């Protein structure tokens, strides 16, 4: 089976594991081999509720998935506070690691994970799906067009959704011992990732949270804003707001000296089969400033597979390269996660210190 599909094991039955089961089924060269939960009953009821094939091995512990010699790669949709323990354990067992975002509680924990992956020669990737949508590649062509787009000047992003009341009582994402980063980790991760993407993964020189932080009674951030600066004189700036307290919105605006790009559904496209953005090159105000000289151009990018299946496909093809052809793991995915985590840490530090400017 050395050249067969990549056999995934899923560790944990979080809601998002349902989406990833479907993605693994849709992606060529990937198959779901095993599912582990804290109890065999939970694993069985997840398998039944999601119509998993009887061929999927069900385990009543996370460790059993790692001990299954047929598992090539694991997907870890666990609470962030458990990432380091289980991702490191998976890497040490020679399993490739696809880790849900936010990648870790902080960069020190992420470094332990990345070091374990590097030491075992396994692929690491975090679960940021939008990076795999063909829309993202199309937007890259535009923002790197020096003539039509110009120099990067400003980026803005909001990432929010208003969950139901139970979320605030039960969800792991608002519990300090499970997901201490709250909305910053769950949603701010997308904004920060989008900024780094737009800036060609150049780290900002400084960041500052803004004084609009809302926390729950346990101190977990439910909504916050921050600004990131690049350059000695802060020539390029990015601001974001992330929140569990407002209507679903996932806007990104990337503004260059001669063009601007806008979209409204960065992390989860409004429709599965295609996604769009608007690009406005070289607009001026018309005479009397009663309109613009150029209308935004709507760019529609179809996709045959949903972005999460494209993520699985990309990850599986890297794993196949390592497993079948002796390739080395693709390091760019480690670096992208690490930079996102470093900026996230700096924003967290700024929030905790009363919105001071934090230099990176
Ligand atoms: C700005 O964009 C417009 C439209 O694409 C183009 O005609 C113009 O040459 C660009 N200006 C610069 C300075 O590159
Ligand atoms: C699937 O795997 C086969 C054999 O390893 C390879 O030739 C093919 O390109 C892979 N397909 C995709 C979509 O990655």
Describe this structure in words.
The chain is α/β, with parallel strands linked by helices. The protein folds into two domains: 6-128 and 308-330, NAD(P)-binding Rossmann-like Domain (Rossmann fold); 131-306 and 341-359, Dihydrodipicolinate Reductase, domain 2. Helices cover 35% and strands 24% of the residues. It contains ten helices and 16 strands. It has helices at 15-26, 40-49, 62-67, 83-92, 107-120, 134-143, 165-170, 182-198, 307-325, 332-352; strands at residues 6-11, 30-36, 57-59, 73-76, 96-99, 124-126, 152-160, 206-209, 214-215, 221-230, 236-243, 252-256, 259-263, 274-281, 297-302, 357-359. Strands 7, 8, 9, 10, 11, 12, 13, 14, 15 and 16 form a ten-stranded mixed beta sheet that branches. A hairpin with a 2-residue loop joins strand 12 (252-256) and strand 13 (259-263). The longest helix has 21 residues, at 332-352. It starts with 5 loop residues before the first strand and ends with a strand. The model has no long low-confidence stretch (mean pLDDT 96). Bound molecules: 2-acetamido-2-deoxy-beta-D-glucopyranose (2 copies). The site of one 2-acetamido-2-deoxy-beta-D-glucopyranose has 7 residues, from helix 9.
CATH topology of the largest domain: Dihydrodipicolinate Reductase, domain 2
Query: How far apart lie the N and C ends?
Result: 46 Å
| Number of helices, counting only DSSP H or I runs of 4 residues or more | 10
* CATH homologous superfamily identity of the largest domain: Dihydrodipicolinate Reductase, domain 2
| Total number of domains | 2
Q: For this structure, what is the CATH class of the largest domain?
A: Alpha Beta
Q: How many strand segments? A: 16
Small-molecule binders here are:
2-acetamido-2-deoxy-beta-D-glucopyranose
Oligomer classification: single chain
Low-confidence stretches: none
Beta fraction? 15-25%
